[in-house]
Amino acid sequence: MNEKDYNSLKDAIDKKKKILVSGCLCGMKIDYEEKGHLVEALRKLMLQGQAIAVCPEVLGGLPTPRDPAEIVVVKDERKVYNNRDYDITESFVLGAERTLEVARKSGAKIAILKSNSPSCGCGKIYDGSFTEKLVDGDGITTEILKKNGLRVITEADFLECIK
Fold it and tell me: By the 8 A CB rule, do 37 and 155 touch?
């Protein structure tokens, strides 16, 4: 995590500003496997009303559970396909736009999102081969949030920051 991200997170926590958080990191069983990825400190922030739990994939209309999905590049355009080779890009973009709307309405300027996800991944995402190979890149939601001025970090960055 760079110093600006660290300072933004520390400022948000210290001043009790709203923070967007992937719902699965708050323990909600809404990821593609219908599992949660609980980070207790984030759940606590949510219960205190500081963290706003979101799942861009659910906001985009996808069910829980759902088929795994990864980003692939098709004719120089990023697309999201599930493991059945079905293009679900539209749902991912809609979920990202709705997540941005939540950020704007809440005043959140920082988001803590689930690493490696095709929606929430920050810095690393799966390569589209469904072989768990990571490549540099951001998920669809992370990309849209960053383009709109939000700082996005992963749960690992958050845990490093609060040590």
Answer: yes
